[in-house]
Queue: 2 jobs
Job 1
Amino acid sequence: MSFLLTLLLSLRPVQAPRSEPPPILSADSVRALVAARVGHPRVPGIVVGRIAGAEMLRLSEGEGISGSTLFEIGSITKAFTGVLLADMVVRGEVALDDPVAKYLPPGTRVPERDGIPITLRHLATHTSGLPRLPDNLAPQDWDDPYADYDAARLVAFLAAHQLRRKPGASYEYSNLGGGLLGFALAHRTGASYGELLRKRIFEPLRMRETGFAESGKPARTITGHNSMGEPVPAWHFDALAGAGALHSTLEDMLGFAAAARDTVHGPLARAMALSQRDMFRVDSTTSIGLGWHRRTRGGRTLIWHNGGTGGFRSMLVVDPGSARAGLVLANSALSQDELGLALLDPAVKVPPLPPARTTVPLDSATLARYPAQYRLAPNFVISITPRGQAGLYLQATGQQRLRLYPSSATEFFLSEVAASISFETDSTGRVATLVLHQNGAQQRAVRER
């Protein structure tokens, strides 16, 4: 679920598929790519799987890493939630255009805009109009941000929130929407989200190790690492589990990938087919299914989802037209998206990992100059808060808190994205402006308090 500053990032374009299935990398070539990345000190381990026709490739690299190692898969969870919704539609238990309010606890108020309610389809396609994160997400521990976000907080947010756009009008990626969808589907059946997935997806596909660490329960995943290579705690989930709670293994995920590439045979074929259908057009090459993203170029369509938590990254990509699927799981927060795409098409170039950044120690008096709110746009504020003696935190409106690392007394960088900030002072020496640096551009945010 990563996540990142919405105004600052754009999804990297997917390599254009060709009309004929491209050749695929040899096992030795894949092994070399994986070994080069795990050799990086900030990537402790990677597992890779590929299905191409009747052939299956499995690779694992890193100490203590194998096909049975549990990884957090982050937002790939949304693909499972989408398949779950499709399964319930196929069974006649819900309809895509049912208002989500119909399947929430009695008395729950769900915001509307211009008389248009938020439906299950809107949630699954990120067109609900809900923000990426709820504004009452205020965890006790930002290293485990969803653990204490429970049903009461979710219901309270919905009751107070006003939509800024009509449901169904436009695409805006929303972890909140994915979590609300899982919450609603579970309430419809009377089962927990985890139990519903186990009965409807995990058991039919023999996914025996897949699940998630609920609040108050220890996680069984291998230790994750942020993009600086620092060990970080596991993530736990409560009401928003449908957005990113799942952890899984290479073996289990290959079972899910095999089912996703074949929408004709198997116990979930009808649900898979419905979940991958084009539901909302984003632009000329991108559309959204139920929980899946779709990228079409040159007559070929890739069905995919990536994922990220505090210490893990994942990528699942399926090419139904060539009966191929590729999977990457890593216990590092550095992106593995291109590696996943390259498993299916060698024309996708896997870039080198970004070089490690150097930090400098700053005294408490210097760090204390910067915490404040800085307004970048009328509805977009960047909050800077202390992070002990190590640096600062940055949190943008409606988004997750991120770590800032000092590279000088006035400059800090974000480890999760290729962006940095610097601070400027006024004539009195007071810090007055935050400057955001990304993609060659500079944006200034004025200090408010």
Job 2
Amino acid sequence: MNDGVFRPEIHPKLAFLLTEKKRYKVARGGRGGGKSYSFADAALARLIASKITIAICRELDTTIRDSVHKLLKERIAYHKLESIFDITDRGIKCVNGSEVVYKHLHNNVDEIKGLQGCSVCWIFEAHSLTKESFDVLYPTIFRNKDAEIWIEFNPDNDDDFVMQRFVYHKDSDAIVVEINYLENPFSTDEMIEEAAKCKRDFPDDYQHIWMGQPSKQGSKLYPMFDEMAHVRPFEMDKLQDNTMFFMGQDPATSYYPFCVWIARIQRNDREFDYVVYNEYPTIGMMNGKLFHEVRTEKLCHLTLKQRATMFRLLDNTIDRTYPHIKVKHRAIDTRFAKASGAASTTLGGTKGLILTMADPENGGMMFTTPPEALIDVQKENIKALMSFDTDLGLIYGVNEPHFFIMPHCVNVIDAFKHHRINKATGSEDAKRKDPVDAVRIIMAMMEGIPHVSEVQKTKTQVVVNVLDAQKEMWLNNV
């Protein structure tokens, strides 16, 4: 019976959210453990108890309001608290002046620094939290000496930043607990049945989804990838004539293709820098989700002509348009027909897709297929371009890599950071393979295309040879 008293339903292992004082309060575990409901009820209790601001954050999200906001609305309705909370599309306010605000963290320094008055910062789905965002966030939050950071997540990889920071490293200012559905007093019979089915049919998925174990056990394919060294902004409008621009596409039959754009910049007579300067689709196009989260879920309904229009826009756009950028070389995965099965026959496999895209009615965009052997060797070539003397340390212009990714190419960064080899099968994990494949496809194509400066050098030498020949003929005739 509802007697007008709010009684938050909080997992016993998470009672510390309201009963103890710690800077960091961390819960990890699988589905059904009661983390989100407990955090939501604890947040409502704090909002009611005194006038405070709670910031709810996620690393990459334009959909926080569709997830946590929806959860809070449901909990307010469940506890019949509508009379004391004003719910809008953008936030929640309590009659006592408390409020909930939502922020994403990635590349959002100015807004993060505006959170310094918060009493609680709840980081939702914190497996995607990066060190860069955390290093901006926590000094801001703790300007309020009584503030707390609440963190809840289901681990993705065993080297997630949040795992490194709070699970493997012991922090006296943190309470860290692990919970799962077997310990949740609020678990339903339906939930327990679903978990049992998953355990029986998909044991590896069960360990991750329900028991909260890291989903990717295996070695990183690019262990040398370092965001400090390899993620860097470039002012594309200031690049000189020694730059060429390329695009690569890892296609799909029903879902979104993944595309990457790379600038090849001549550093000196023998060396080039390679800069990933755009990607498609972006997290904005995927409603705040990383590509690997929706790669086998979100159907692509764009026509080939619409895709061509989007690709041409991304040829020239890095936050704003630079019309001088011309992409003359585009490559597509040579093995698409082999990998896609019968579904690709509607376009005749890779070659059929190339001819179809080249049709003016479909956008008139030309793609080539690099040899498979060249695509295969790019794995090691990219590793070599990423490498530098780590003992000496990063020194710009002296000791640094030759492969870079611009900060807004979030999916490519995520892929190079987490892409792995499965120990059991020895094959690359499919989850983050698409962005990496798109890069390899471009790199393979580049091997057969001389750089613009080399082309110009050849033309100049031809002119010199012709002039020398004409001069010799003139001297012989004198």
